[in-house]
Amino acid sequence: MAHNVSVADLDGGVRLITLDRPEKKNALTGAMYDALRDALVAADASENIGAVVFAGQPGVFSAGNDLADFVGQAERGFSEAPALQFIRQLARTRTPMVAAVDGIAVGIGATLTLHCDLVYASPAARLRLPFVELGLVPEAASSYLLPLRIGRLRATELLLLSEALDADGAQALGLVNAVIPADMLVEHAVAQAGRLAALPRGALAASRKLIRGDQAAVEAALEAEAAAFDAQLRSPESQERLRAFLSRAKPASA
User: Fold this and answer.
1) Which of 10, 65, 85, 177 is 20 to 30 A away from residue 240, measured at CA?
2) What are the chain's domains?
3) How many CB atoms lie within 10 A of CB 209?
4) 118-121 and 165-166 strand pairing
5) Would the pTM count as exceeding 0.90?
6) Tens digits of per-residue pLDDT, 30-57?
7) Ranges in the chain, pLDDT < 50
């Protein structure tokens, strides 16, 4: 295991990437982002890996950024952050990706699923995108991908008002393929990933490219978000909100 991220290459050409920081609800540090990015780069470079599965711990997928770690990056800016390097790799990864979401999926824990080819959730899954309430903006091309997937009005509700979405709601909106019992979730996701990995690689890659559509538009949205995120991360309002969240105090402007 490297930096609270474990990588296991399973039979059938499936790489299982597991977030393993349950004491912090799988909140992602810079080192974890680096490990995730490296695991995806290596999957793309391997002839043996045909699909990747993202999983968390029982009851928790990811609480998003470790804000204490993330606030420390504000001086350097988001453009240099490991989070952005992972997000860029997530968008360009050629290997099919599957998510197994059990419990909370906050921020990047939710937006990474927009880049996955298949998404499965337990009944306990809860997706939330609290960027604006922290004085930030959406990331991982979610401002482009989410309206494309579910429509602008519903996406606005989730992205601006940070409305939480449960597993059934996510399935109804087309953000989740199926809701699976928690004790079968990862097994099901791995099985589906195995089905993808067993397909003819050329046909799979070409079909995936057609299904996913305009990659240039995704990357353009990602970079526009990154610039806006960087500006907001340095702003007084974001710094106040982030510090208030860390101290559990209500910000003066709220």
Assistant:
1) 85
2) 5-182 (3.90.226.10)
3) 11
4) unpaired
5) yes
6) 999 999 999 999 999 999 999 999 999 9
7) 249-254
